[in-house]
Each structure stands twice: as C-alpha cells, then as structure tokens.
Specification:
Blueprint lengths: L1 H14 L7 E11 L2 E5 L5 H4 L2 E5 L2 E2 L8 H19 L4 E9 L5 E7 L2 E2 H8 L3 E2 L18
Parallel strand pairs: 3-6
Antiparallel strand pairs: 1-2, 1-5, 2-3, 4-8, 5-6, 6-7
Length: about 150
C-alpha cells in the first residue's frame, strides 16, 4: 500500500508540472550515454526532478558498453562531440515535448541554444533517427555492429 501511494504521488507530481507544450531548463550532471543524460530539473519537486535520466526523443546512439568495438568507438566519438558542444556554454539545456517513460526515465527533445542535440548527433553521424519512443512501448534499437 505504501509503494502504491508513492507511485501515485510521483505520477501526480509529474503530470502537474509538464505538458507537451512546456519547456523546462535542466542542468546536466552527467552524460550517461550519447543519447541519455542525467539532469536536475529545478522547477520539479526533488523526488521527480533531481538526478533523473532523460533519453533524447527520436534518436538512437551507440552505447559505450556496446557489443562490438566499432559501437564503443563511435559512442566515445559521440561523447567527445557532446562534451565539446557543451564546453562553450553553461551545462544548462532546455527540455521540450517531455514525458516520463518506463523505469522513470524522461523522454524529451534536448535543446542546446535552441538547437536539437539529438539532431546534431544525427547530422554528425553519431546517431540514427528512429521512430519516436512511445509511452510504454520499446523501440527497436539500431544494430551498431552492422552499420
């Protein structure tokens, strides 16, 4: 019963703070993967906005723990690009079209100075476009070892 109450509070608190039209400023704490960031969202309550993960909408990037060496190498290049991109500005980003998915991971378009970071990764060749993540649905990831 206690767990059910906590789940209800988390769902209600997120839904009262976000809609698809909102833009939220977040501070990057860590780049977990090229398409997953760990952030703080100061306008959210601590339980839903501190040390939370955001996955970029519509892109799939290689994993640093990938299956093959090519995937790991491309992931490191993507991380280097992201770090160089964020070095010239404060580590604050804008999140739009945000919603919470499985395992309490947010899904959002990540904007740096108004430009989509996910789209930049695709243009640079460090990520591929995929169908948008849909609530409750898993998305087929790119097989980076065959690309």
């Amino acid at each position: 019963m206690k767990n059910l109450l906590y789940t209800f509070i988390i769902c209600v608190s997120f839904n009262s703070f976000a809609s698809n039209d909102d833009t939220f400023i977040a501070t990057i704490l860590k780049i977990q993967e090229p398409d997953i960031l760990k952030v703080d969202i100061p306008t959210f309550p601590d339980i839903t906005g501190r040390n939370v993960y955001v996955r970029m909408l519509g892109v799939d990037a290689p994993s640093i723990n990938g299956v093959c060496d090519e995937e790991k190498l491309l992931a490191m290049k993507a991380l280097t690009y992201i770090n160089s991109r964020l070095k010239t500005i404060p580590t604050r980003i804008a999140l739009t079209n945000m919603w919470r998915g499985n395992n309490f991971i947010y899904h959002a378009d990540v904007l740096v100075n108004g430009s989509s970071l996910g789209e930049e990764l695709v243009i640079q060749g460090y990520a591929k476009r995929i169908d948008l993540h849909k609530q409750g649905k898993r998305v087929q990831r790119v097989d980076w070892c065959k690309v």
